[in-house]
């Protein structure tokens, strides 16, 4: 075994005019989350425990699009979704349509551990949360003034707004009103991808796990479900690797992106980074996305085909890296 490894992401697709102080905030948050995971791994925590721990931290901070700070639906509400997978036995849990659960990833973990099911959504997921005694809050807890402003801009532009953190000042330079070459299911969209969060870990026993959480798209239709809670699309872990994806959810779903990384490792015999590169190049069609991955031998990798991805990784041998741009 090559020792433990961890990777985190805060989404693929970044406003090229993102102010330096916002870039620094993102790097600091990713670094904090990596250090949290490193400390847990050094204390012999399991891979699945670590991915839950790290994603909870990302959900609690409003900087990225998950938990508090989630993107708003067209109705101005928050509908969150998350999934988690323990690769050692391919056990998984997923939730969608959450409006009051403070940490969606932990409810996904409870679906995996405490229910006979793999996926619960909307009223059923909320009822299960109350049965399990998880912390719940009013929907307003998740809504930030910044996102209220971004929703207003999205409605004025009559579009789904992907990068919900683009500052209002100078917004005309970000291409919202301009014709976009990108499409989602044949319809034009704005040019920036949603900032889903995720974490992948292999522990010192070689067990892989993955977790992903998001608020979805700004100005999305109520009831829309993306790739993040879909096992094999936005999240996947098995005996070989763990993968978490981010970007254009509809393209990730069509390409079953996370599972494809494991598949080409298993069936083509590719090492982790080559598998990631292959999938990003050949399985996204015209979609824009990125992913992070670890292997059971302690390798860590990432890839994306858009302008940037908020990401960080660390390994037991002391390597640590946090970055945004290509």
From TrEMBL:
The protein, known as: beta-aspartyl-peptidase
Keyword Cytoplasm: no
Enzyme Commission number(s) from the entry: 3.4.19.5
Active-site feature positions: 196 (nucleophile)
Residues carrying the site annotation Cleavage: 195-196
CDD domains per UniProt: Asparaginase_2
Gene3D superfamilies: (Glycosyl)asparaginase
Residues binding substrate, per UniProt: 224-227, 246-249
GO BP field: proteolysis
Oligomer status and interactors: Heterotetramer of two alpha and two beta chains arranged as a dimer of alpha/beta heterodimers.
Enzyme type, top EC level: hydrolase
Extent of the signal sequence: none
UniProt keyword list: Autocatalytic cleavage, Hydrolase, Protease
Spans through the membrane: none
Reaction equations catalysed: Cleavage of a beta-linked Asp residue from the N-terminus of a polypeptide
Recorded name of the encoding gene: Vigan.02G048200
One GO molecular-function entry: asparaginase activity
Cited Pfam families: Asparaginase_2
Matches recorded under InterPro entries: Ntn_hydrolases_N (IPR029055), Peptidase_T2 (IPR000246)
